[in-house]
Amino acid sequence: MQPIVTDQQKGVRIITLNRPDVRNALDTQLRGALAEALDAAAADPDTRAVVLTGAGDAFCAGLDLRELEGMAQRSAEVNRADSRGLADLLLKLVTLPKPVIAAVNGPAVAGGAGIVTACDLAVIDPDARIGYSEARIGFVAALVSVFLVRQVGEKRARDLLLSARLIGAEEAAAIGLVNEVAPAGQALATAVDRARALARNAPGSLAMTKTLLVAVPSMSLEDGLRYAVEVNALARERDELREGVRAFLEKRDPAWRG
Q: pTM score, two decimals?
């Protein structure tokens, strides 16, 4: 069984974590396959947005506990390299030049919740639960915390990380951890609809916006504005703006290039 399954639907690439027998737990093979699938989506001009979901009744149960148990016997250097690989995977989701939407079809726990946090948008099934449960097993949600604090604020991040509790779909939406609670059984379909809407926007503008959103939060107000001025000026010089304005005035759909 392939650890990742992909499907292309009119500009939207659906990437499915495919280890349903272990609730799509992230072993080394799955993590590597996911990174490759994301790179392929980034390089494909016909892919304008990505939807990430899980096979079966779970989104992702986090790191594979059998592998995690064995890591205690490894050297510090090996563990650091493995952690760096997971950090790179999360960063790849955040910095992918195309929008990534998580379709949370079932439980998203620990590292699985971290993947959701790293996506641009998230749609969740009303029966799904999400949480950062690492402290329950003596682990630390170290990598995920970097993204979580930015997303929900320090007080809420402290609650989620220190309690290690799983929260329901409505609470996840209320605190901004996910964007929408889908109708029952429709998380994937709802995420694909959102992805198609995003895919109608200019691909270069989306890529530049994602870069802006990564860079600005760590800057001072003055530095952020200086950076934004440069991005704004660059956007004015691009063919996409000329095409977008022309299409609007001519009352037609823009013909974006990949």
A: 0.94
